[in-house]
């Protein structure tokens, strides 16, 4: 395998114009790699990579990963997939296709080129977990026919494909299960809780709490997550994971709302709305495996990460208003 931790590789990032993908492209360029960013701009935005377009080692290709891709690269990070419930439920068939057909196409590319592929999987493979916190050995509790299934089952099938390519063809796959991650460049309109609350607070609009606000999530700052990606990609061939990547700090949505209100100094009120179908009650990663195999753990506390994210959204909200 071409020295994956070395500089000067040509790296493919699918979903590279999205929130996580655009930060990953930056990190890889900073390490001296060439980056081929592939995205169909379904939920991503060229503005996320505008500052990279003139970089001599950066290339953008508009392409839907549901169709085969013939390029020459040394490693693949497969992030292409709408990630917020609002977006992945807008065209659920396309969401499943993106996870399943997209991952098949990229695994095929990795197989032809004999290169590693890191798959951006998700804590959603655990569904509404009956085990808490969630270790990688937990098989999950997913409703296969509910409104979230296009995403959850699509990602589960993508994991199946990764492990079958690994067993059947010896492909060097790396599966990471990402828990809720936030930071600058989240799409302000994609309905995810951190961006929703911050934008609502900055605009002085009511903070929309779904259900009783007691459901929990664990929020990881984007820089921490990407450090985990890079460490995972640098593990020896044969280590496929899956590995949980997330911040074990667990907060209820009501606590998150109060934190955002305090940090923004907003006078917004709380507005309770119905809980969406199949919304998981709790979620917290067990990161013992990431600690042991990657020497990784998050370093940015929620408060610090929120301050950085609010700073970013002040610019966005000011620009729109
Ligand atoms: P995002 O929506 O900002 O990024 C996804 C990107 O994929 C977008 O740029 C979108 O245009 C692109 N895309 C979607 N369908 C595509 C297709 N068919 N062909 C090419 N490009 C396509 O979301 P994100 O938060 O940056 O998520 C990136 C990846 O990480 C996703 O695979 C998501 O499932 C996974 N993930 C993210 C989180 C999180 O909390 N951010 C949690 C778990 C998993
Ligand atoms: N949520 C909320 N208000 C919002 C958006 C989301 O209370 O305006 C809740 C949502 O019901 C869920 C949690 O916040 O319980 C996280 O939602 P998100 O869509 O960010 O991520 P996911 O449910 O995929 O973990």
How would you state the average pLDDT, rounded? 95
Helix share bin: 25-40%
User: In terms of quaternary structure, what is this?
Assistant: single chain
- Biggest sheet statistics: 7 strands, parallel
CATH superfamily of one domain: NAD(P)-binding Rossmann-like Domain
Question: What is the approximate shape?
Answer: globular
**C-alpha termini separation:** 50 Å
- CA radius of gyration: 19 Å
- Percent strand: 15-25%
Overall CATH architecture of one domain:
3-Layer(aba) Sandwich
Physical arrangement of strands within the biggest beta sheet: 3-2-1-4-5-6-11
What is the helix/strand order? EHEEEHHEHEEHEEEHEEHEHH
What's the helix count?
A: 9
* pLDDT < 50 runs, ≥5 residues: 1-5
- CATH class of one domain reads Alpha Beta
List the ligand species.
nicotinamide-adenine-dinucleotide, uridine-5'-diphosphate
CATH fold type of one domain: Rossmann fold
Structural class: alpha/beta
Strand tally: 13
């Amino acid at each position: 395998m071409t020295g994956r931790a070395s500089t000067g590789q040509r790296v493919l990032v699918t979903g590279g114009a999205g929130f996580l993908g655009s930060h990953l492209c930056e990190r890889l360029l900073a390490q001296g790699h060439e980056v081929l960013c592939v995205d169909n701009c379904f939920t991503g935005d060229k503005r996320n990579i505008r500052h990279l377009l003139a970089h001599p080692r950066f290339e953008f290709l508009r392409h839907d990963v549901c169709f085969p891709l013939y390029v020459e690269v040394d490693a693949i990070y497969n992030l292409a997939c709408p990630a917020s419930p609002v977006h992945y439920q807008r065209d659920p068939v396309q969401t499943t296709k993106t996870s399943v057909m997209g991952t098949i196409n990229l695994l095929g590319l990795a197989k032809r080129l004999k290169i590693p592929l890191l798959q951006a999987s998700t804590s959603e493979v655990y569904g509404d977990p009956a085990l808490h916190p969630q270790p990688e050995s937990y098989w999950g509790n997913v409703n296969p026919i509910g409104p979230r299934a296009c995403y959850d089952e699509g990602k589960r099938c993508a994991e199946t494909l990764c492990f079958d390519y690994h067993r059947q063809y010896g492909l060097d796959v790396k599966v990471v299960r990402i828990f809720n991650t936030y930071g600058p460049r989240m799409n302000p309109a994609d309905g995810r809780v951190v961006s929703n609350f911050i934008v609502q607070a900055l605009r002085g609009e009511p903070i929309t709490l779904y259900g009783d606000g007691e459901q929990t999530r664990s929020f990881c700052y984007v820089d921490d997550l990407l450090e985990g990606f890079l460490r995972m990609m640098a593990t020896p061939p044969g280590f496929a994971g899956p590995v949980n990547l997330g911040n074990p700090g667990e907060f209820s949505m009501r606590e998150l709302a109060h934190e955002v209100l305090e940090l923004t100094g907003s006078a917004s009120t709380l507005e309770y709305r119905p809980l969406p179908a199949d919304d998981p009650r709790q979620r917290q990663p067990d990161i013992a495996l990431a600690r042991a195999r990657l020497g990784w753990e998050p370093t940015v506390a929620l408060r610090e990460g929120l301050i950085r994210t609010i700073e970013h959204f002040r610019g966005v909200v000011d620009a729109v208003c």
